[in-house]
From TrEMBL:
InterPro entries: R3H_dom, R3H_dom_sf, R3H_sperm-antigen, SPAG7. It holds the Pfam family R3H. PROSITE patterns: R3H (PS51061). It comes from Podarcis muralis. Residues 47-110 form the R3H domain. This is Sperm-associated antigen 7 homolog. GO terms for molecular function: nucleic acid binding. It comes from the Eukaryota.
Amino acid sequence: MAELDLLGSILSSMEPPPALGDREAKRAKEQTAQLKKLQEQEKRQKVEFRKRMEKEVSDFIQDSSQTKKKFRPMNKIERSILHDVVEVAGLTSFSFGDEEESRYVMIFKKEFAPSDEELDAYRRGEEWDPQQAEEKRRLKELAQRQAEEEALKGPTVVNPNTDYKDKYSHLIGKVAAKDAAHTMEANKAYGCVPVANKRDTRSIEEAMNEIRAKKQRLRQTEDEGPAPPASSS
């Protein structure tokens, strides 16, 4: 009996198991505490990263031998922090890279801000060479100037080195003479008279006199009548 009383007293002293609702509430509380811990850790990392970027940007500004600086690839949050640090420092910054994991930031001093051609080279993943770019620009301007000059000259006229008429004059002369002979034969065959032969070279006065003479001869012939027939012997 005493043993039963002892067991009962032990059981009564123990805490009862938590209910189902209490167990879920405890789990939710633990998750909230863990999330808060992670947020505080992320916040500390951002603060530390910003301080590190501020130090690198400050060193870059003080280094007169540097005009630009390329950083390692960063995630979106880190790039955002770096851009903010650069803006506060009065510098210029750009992000380059097609893939998110390979995107990086380049910063420039204000007096050495990049040109559009330089930015295009970085966007293509190429290294910027000022001398090579200047040579390409010079060649492009030269080609454009030559094209404008050619356009002002108008269409190109091709002149042969020798006149084909001189080269083949003996043949052309024969052909021309042959054609003239054919034309004359045709005129004779069909009664054609050249225009030059039809031209009246007489003066107006000579022509009028000839017309009057013809009329006078015609009247005389009419007045005389027909000639008498010849007598037969």
